Amino acid sequence: MPGSRKEQAKPRAKPAQQKIESILDRHQCDRGMLVAILQDTQAEYNYLPKEALVEVSQGLDIPLTQVYSVASFFKAFSLKPRGRHLVHVCLGTACHVRGAVRILDEIKRKLGINEGETTKDLRYTLETVNCVGACALGPIVIVDGQYSGEMKTDKVKPLMESYK
Q1: pLDDT tens-digit map of 91-119
Q2: Which of 2, 3, 95, 145 is deepest in the core (most CB within 10 A)?
Q3: Residue span of the structural domain in which 157 resides
Q4: DSSP conformation class of 164
Q5: Of the candidates 64, 23, 26, 28, the residue with the CA atom closest to the CA atom of residue 42
């Protein structure tokens, strides 16, 4: 396509630019694939850095505000660095009545962070969810997609240490 991003002569790209260009190329620079492009970008960086969003905006020739709008709309996207291990504590009704708040408090104490925060060493990010649909196993803690049911406060330390 004349005037396309590939045909324009550009100076040698930085590694970050090359990563985003590769992602854009995989999706054929299709604006309709913005969510998938952002998913791939987040998979690459573990969050959506500002520089990457600028590259996506320029590569798709859409306003940066539109890219930010999509990135901030979906809870699955993070605009700040996240830990290598994502820790989710279910606070749905069944988990709540079985002590999920105590579990959350113990995790916060062990990691030294609050929900929505990341440890300084970028090892863990702690988030809460409303329900994961495994109510019979509550309270539930999910680390990197692995469910740990019937969680007790004394199980928190060994669980977190198993993800070092």
Answers
A1: 999 999 999 999 999 999 999 999 999 99
A2: 95
A3: 85-161
A4: -
A5: 23
